[in-house]
Structure formats: structure tokens, C-alpha cells
Amino acid sequence: MRERKKQVNWSELCPDLLRCVLERLSFTDLNRAKSVCSSWHSASRGCVPKRNQIPWLILFPCDNNNNNNNGSCVLFIPDDRERVYRTRDLGVDFVRSCCLATYGSWLLMMDPMWNLNILNPLTGERIDLPLSEPVVPEIARPSLKTASSLACLWVDEKSKDYLVVWSMSQTFMVYTKKGNNTWRRMITNMEWSKSDKHMVYNHRAQKLYVYRNAEAVRIWSFREDHPQRVFEAKYYYGIGINYSDFLPLWTQENMLKWREEEDAYLREFVDDGWVNIATTVSGQVIKVSSVMQRSKRWLFSISKPQGRTNRWGRTNSLGDEALIFDMGITVVAKDIPGVMRNSIYFSGVGYGRKNPDHIFVFNLTTNKVEPLPPCVFSSIPFSDARWFFPGLSD
């Protein structure tokens, strides 16, 4: 009688052996291995993954009865285009919350009561922030129910130090950081017609850059205990959107071509588009203009401050870097598999985040959209999508 071979159960491998293997994996592969089974997840504790070098896309679930396992997010990793991954079940409270910002592996989440927390969807770690109510006067509370909320986030992956800046409605900008047990007021602004549009934080410079509607970029330094306004002339000039941002540079020689492009642009005009700001690897602030035309064609334009002129000049190239639009930063992309240099990782603006046609990688070299594979959007009914950068370190 032939002896039956004992079937191997991979979940019963020696933990020390597992740990030796897991420690050699990349950031992406280690997170994949953690999800195999509980014993592999347990063995991975304490393993320090190699630095991740590519952005991931996270899709948030809809809060409805048609979405099975609706407490989980879906993850798309660009170097594995044939499949998507699910996070652990993050609970009902998570599904009812919305994501305001991302940094590294962390998400800044706001619940229906306007309370904020910082969540790591890969590990389930959560940092509760101070309750929002004490900083909101009675007169402003009704407007908070309908006003948009703007925020930026920074988290140190190792120490869990963090900084959150939150612009509520059009009148209050507050911040909190590790060690604070309350929100602190940065500014009270009664110019109701001018609201904050976008903000990014550069931890290396410890500066917050805030873009307001058609105005210059305002700068705040966080080097001291309380943030201080910084005045830098090269950012004074307004950076509102202009349709000429999307046309060829005008010269006497290409005047006819410029007029043809202008006519084509105006025929395809839908709205005024959007302006965002970002900081590059070197710490330079850039202006990112975007617009979608009637034919659903997307256009992007990149501008940088130009020397002593204190004006914004078009460059339309990120060189060997890639822009993670949702985070407002660029990352090194040269010779890194899975990330495209001179490109924009885009997930829409405003309510467009729910539209698969608004989630893509835009190649600035070819001025064309690189769509994501169908498996991404067929995985779950989603309510929001964000590019983020797990394992990011300053």
C-alpha cells in the first residue's frame, strides 16, 4: 500500500522561518503576505519592510446594502495591474466617514459629526483627534453641515508624530499635533467670499502652503510652538486659472497655430477648471492647473515661480518626478518600476472622485490619459478614491 504524503499546510510553517522570509520582501509583497492568514500576519510583526517607491490607489466603499464586506477598502498597486486587494474590515464607523487627506499609509477621516481621526487601513491603527465642537462657535455651526472641509495631514511612520491642519467652512483654520488635547486656532478670516482652495505641508521645510481663490499662496511656518505667517515675495502673485495655461506659448512665429488652438479650446469649453498647488522633491512650490473639455478630454498645465520676476511661468514638465495629486507632492520616479516619470497620478476633483473616467495617470510627455485596468472599478461600488503612498518617509 502506497503511503499517502502528508499535505503541507503553509499556515503552520515555523514562525522563525517565516520571519526570515518576510524580512526579505518588498513593502508591497510584505503587505500581501500579511493577508494570507493569521499566522503569517502574526509572524510579520516587527518586520521592517523595504521602502515603498510607488503610489497606491485606495477605493472607499459605498454605504449601501449592495456592497458585500462593505467595511473594506480596495487597493490597486500599479506594478500588479491584473488584480486588486482588499483591506481588513474597518467597521461601520469607517464606512460612514469621508477621507479628507492622506499621508504615507495614513488617512485623515471625518465622521458625520465632524470629528476627525487618523487611520492606517493596512494595520488598522487609529489615532483619535480632539473633538471638533469646542472650536466652532454657535453662529458657525449651521454652515458646517453643508460647507466643504479642507485639510492636510503629516504623520511620521515610526514615532507616530502627526500634524493636522483643518480649514472649516470659510472662517476658521485650526491645527492639532501630537501632544495637543485640543484644536488651536490659526486664523479667523471674515472675508466670506474668499475661501481656502488647497493646502499642502512640506515637513522638511516645516511650512504650510495655502492657496486661496485667485490669490497668492499664503505660507505658515511651523518651526515654533505656534505657527507664524511667512511673507515670501516670490509667492505674492495671484495664481488663478487662465485658459492660456492650456495653449501653446504665444510667439510671433506660432501666432496662427495659437489662434487655432484657442478656437478649439473655446469650442470644447465646459467650465473654468481647477487650480491646485504642490511641492516638489526639492521643496519648490508649483501650480497645477487642470480642466476637462466637452469631449471629456483632460488638460493639465504645470507652472513654477520664475526667478526674480516673482511671476508664475509654465514649464509643463516634472522631469524625473511624478506628482501624487491628492497629496500635493512629487516623488522620484526615474528607473523605478511601477511609477511613471513626468506624470500626474490623478483621482478627480470634487464630486468627480466617484467617476472612474476621472481616475487615471496623466502622461505630461504625451499629454494623454493612461487609464487604469477594468478590474479596479469592477471590484466594488465605490464612493471615493485617493492615491496615497504607503511607507512614505521624509
From TrEMBL:
Membrane-crossing segments per the record: none
SMART domains the UniProt entry points to: FBOX
Domain F-box positions: 13-53
CDD domains cross-referenced by the UniProt entry: F-box_SF
Domain of life: Eukaryota
Protein name: F-box domain-containing protein
Organism lineage string: Eukaryota, Viridiplantae, Streptophyta, Embryophyta, Tracheophyta
